[in-house]
Give the backbone structure.
Amino acid sequence: MKKLLYSIPAAMFFASSLAVAHGPVRQKAEEEVVINAPAEKVWGIIKDYGDMSWHPGISSVTNQDGNKKGAVRVLTLASGGTITEELKKYDEAKMSYSYKITEMSTASTITHAGAEEHVPVLPVHDYAATIGVEAQGADKSKVFWKAAYYRAYMNNDPPAEMNEEVANKAVENVLKSGLANLKTLAEK
């Protein structure tokens, strides 16, 4: 009985310490834009998984296997660096596709908590996204772009370069700038 009485406070202490020490929380971002152009025209601009010329942040893309599931594309960013992505799902009929980042180059190296940390060009971890076009009548369409990810630093107490706020701002910028430029191109 005494052992049980002593083990209860120890178990409570252990459980409370686990509650305080938690890692990153999955983040989500979603952006939409209404474009004054038919859905087929808008889809025609973004449907090629190997062509991101519509996004101002991407300077070039290399692609293996086109729009087939498992296709790999490497994005060279206008600001420098690369991001490698894998196509997870492609649906021509629904005018959408999903992809996942599998590798990124390093933007910088910092020292945090006594260790060297590599800051990726997009400060996220385990990033997956879906982009698609929906018809809104004959001459209008809506484009949605949804992403889910973690901050780049997966341990507790992230450095400023790899926290949730920086990750959220970076992803929001990617989505918003891409959709704004897509709208400009499609409405020409």
Summary: The radius of gyration is 21 Å. Helices lie at 2-20, 39-46, 164-186. Confidence is low (pLDDT under 50) at residues 14-20. The longest strand covers residues 124-135.
